[in-house]
Amino acid sequence: MSLWKHPMKVTVFDESSFSEIRVFKGTPRGWLWMAIAGLCSVGGLTFVLVALTPLREVLVPGYVATSTRESMEATQALADSMEEVLQQNAQTVMALRHSLSGDSAAMAFLSGKGSHAANENNPLILDSAQVFEGPGPGELALREQVANEDRFSLQRRSGGGTTLSLGFRFPPVVGGVSDALDRGRGHLGIDLVAPRGSAIQAVDDGSVLFSSYTVETGYTMLIQHRGDRVSVYKHCSSLLKQQGDLVIGGEAVALIGNTGALTTGPHLHFEWWVKGQAVDPSPWLAAQP
User: What's the start-to-end Cα distance of the chain, in Å?
Assistant: First the structure.
């Protein structure tokens, strides 16, 4: 008979009294199968504990938790979105620079009529040569609409030929001047102090060229007027008009605030641009009744 199949008995005695404590009967093959089964059970239980419980995050080297992986994917998606926003902001800043110099095509782009210049492969990358090649049909139609708008003529004031063509008819806000225009330090407008939430009004008839938030100047609005004139309103608490809206001189377009990085208190930073040049608006403020 094979040794693996030979019946055996293992007796356990008490060392001091030699009394029998336990007797194990079986064959070596049976005991071997029992040992293998025990090892498999221990291994399976260990696998279940490691694979299906949080212990895997501690015991498995290099393992990334599901929550961490989801957070990383969300962070990557957010970074991609922020990159797209930065590209759009860069295009807007470039268009603003061109518009302040009197470029009508840039004004069309800012008012949403230059989106056709987007690259077909990547709609976020614009071809500047196409964007600023000249006024399109939409821009020409807007010019004609503004020129023929009857309601603008109802509030026109008489007099002031050359002076009126350079200046404006309404003060942007009722308040004192806290800081004057100083080109030497790059302050291209004046600061007008007024209580937070006070109404800011359009200084003349025109159309909203830009109405959005920027990091440095907070809620900002640009209004295009006849005669290549542009008024700029910065650090507003909120904007009452959207890009492309037509406004009447004296109409409320925003509220006084303290938004943006370049501000230390509630006020309006007001700029007046004529034919691409920043002009001191103080003379027309002093002339207001």
Answer: 125
Contact at 8 Å (CB) between 223 and 207?
yes
| CA proximity to 208, closest of 224, 186, 230, 195 | 224
Q: Residue-wise pLDDT tens for the chain (289 aa)?
A: 577 777 888 888 887 887 877 887 878 878 788 889 999 999 888 888 777 777 666 667 766 677 777 888 888 888 888 888 888 877 777 777 666 655 666 666 666 654 444 444 444 344 444 444 445 565 566 556 655 554 444 444 444 444 456 889 899 998 888 989 988 888 899 999 999 999 999 999 999 999 999 998 999 999 999 988 999 999 999 999 999 999 999 999 999 999 998 888 899 999 999 988 899 998 888 655 5
HSE toward the beta carbon, residue 83, CA cutoff 13 A: 7
Tell me the residue length of the chain. Answer: 289
